[in-house]
Design goal:
Blueprint: E1 2-7, H1 14-17, H2 20-27, E2 32-37, E3 49-50, E4 60-61, H3 63-76, E5 82-92, H4 95-101, E6 106-110, H5 119-124, E7 128-131, H6 141-152, E8 185-186, E9 189-190, H7 200-218, H8 220-225
Bound molecules: S-adenosylmethionine.
Length: about 230
Amino acid sequence: MRIDILTLFPEMFENVLGHSILKIAREKALVQYKLFNIREYAENRRCVDDRPYGGGPGMVMKPEPIFNTVEAIERETDARCKKILLTPQGDRFSQSIARELAKEAHLMLICGHYEGFDDRVRTGLDAMELSIGDYVLSGGEIPAMVVVDAVVRLIPGVLGAPDSTDNESFSEGMLEYPQYTRPAEYRGMQVPPVLMSGNHQKIKEWQKTRAVERTSERRPDLLNKT
Ligand code: SAM
């Protein structure tokens, strides 16, 4: 998969893309990240924002540097890439959207800043609009990192154990069962004996029951969806 990130702050991504699973995915040649500084595509003295028509606080991102960046990328690649605008007004990002995006060959993530995009960016680009939650961040960079991380770990071959995302929270419409590791006793707290019994059938039943219990306690809305 190729992932293009359009941003005014490409330096913010260096650390995140250069560590852990995102780095491993690149080293395995399963993903290629490309950062584009929107400022470099502005026609007028690298000016990327301006005051809002009608008044109001802050500055709005101009459409032309964003369209110029998108079109420059499209001229040298496959124009059918999946474009994503990061915006608090978009559809709520979820594990199921991440699974769908993980099947794409080419994603383009467009990060807003300041007071957000001139609305003609939204209406003029055939882009999916994604929000990472009901709160407002200063820019689309952190939301883009969230989307990239959630998607890349679902690309086949990225994680060491191919089935490690199967039982994760949200995969089967449930939260994951509780997990334990050594020691068997810590500060008087015991690991449930069934997990050390070696009886795989019983372990599976225990995990299923705990996953249902945990989901109904914490996120009953997930159970009602299935
Ligand atoms: N004025 C906009 C509004 O009220 O809808 C908010 C603009 S926000 C300060 C600047 C940029 O941060 C947005 O254009 C978007 O790219 C990004 N952003 C902020 N919160 C976000 C969220 N919850 N999900 C996705 N992107 C977000």
